[in-house]
Write a structure and sequence with these properties.
Length: 423
Amino acid sequence: MSNGASATYTQSPVTRKKWRGRSYVSLLLFIIATLLTPIAVIGHWGHETIANPEQYIDTVGPLAEDPEIQQAVSETVSDAIIEKVDTSQVASGLVGVIVPNEALSNLLSGPIKAGIDGLIRGAVDKFVTSDAFQEAWIRINELAQKGFIAALTGDPTGPVQFVGDELVLDISSLLQEVQTSLVDEGIDIAGLVTIPDSDAQVVLLDSPELAQARAIYSLTSPFLAVILLITAGLFMVSVLLATRRARTTVAVGITVVTWSLTLQYLLGRAEEGFVNSFAGSLFENAAAAFYNQLLTYLLLAVQGLLLLGAVVIVLGWFCGSTGLASTVRGSIDKGLVEIGQRLPAALAAIGRPMREYAPFVRWGLLVIWLVTVFAFGSVTLERTLGWTALLLGVLTIAQILMHAPDDSAPEHRPSDALPSSTT
């Protein structure tokens, strides 16, 4: 145990009681942050991906080019149009005019109906592979995103609605787009169909958990934008209050790594349940593609947190009092001191206040890094790696400046050295 730690236990009972109180608070905050971590990760993803219109479109937009999505949309729209057109009645009426014989008319109406259905399906297939479908897909998903958020907040006017345990999407606007395309392709009969403003509905999901999701969203939506930052802040305060900060820092890193690996595993298992929820529907084959695309940013966030946890573990070890950590820290500090002493004396004006307030400088930079990583944009592997590298670079520069030549300063100050902590 270091001298600082020993001093803690040789102080008065009042002081020891104060440290024990801080330890209890630190432990409590650590437990709360640990429990909040998975909720914060998923909540942050939901806010950034689903509640954010631009991010949502960036996420689902590429699905318009996925063959399975195109096939699912084509089948859904074709079936809806064929039902609206009532090709059986059209074929029977057409044959009845040409062939008065009822038996012969019934015999011919079947192949003619199949031919009309084939024309419609062929035209719809052509439409879903066109640029027009790409544009329609974006417009429909913009409406669907707004409708989904409206449905979660209880607004009954959007294209996405909760009907009992079902999540239903109105595809009237898509039918109108396809209807125009069919008429342009020469299938004039499609133009005779009147599509109401809100009539064609497709069940997206049927699960009793949807009502729970709606209730959870209504309670947590005000905090989703900052819940990840709050969780990270709780971990940081827990470290600040801990009597053994290095160990607590390592524990935070292990917790983050453990939750990251657990979430990766659970997301893989959840895909099976998600796909099964579409079993028997026209979107059964497209469900996996939709799931993987929609959760892209969540997976990236989990990877980013995995990297972050590893960095925190290394940081905690580096600041610890083990023999190897002390040796490594001493070697690095010696090198930074040598570099700092070669700096122009004019830089002492910058280095002196930084040296005097070294702990505040370091913790201030950590807070800025924390806010930048978790409060602005999605947490991804690239962003986490980039901002962490920048933080380490700035900390290194600050440490060098603290050792700039300064005739007015003592030759050695405890705060000059790289931070260390008890284990």
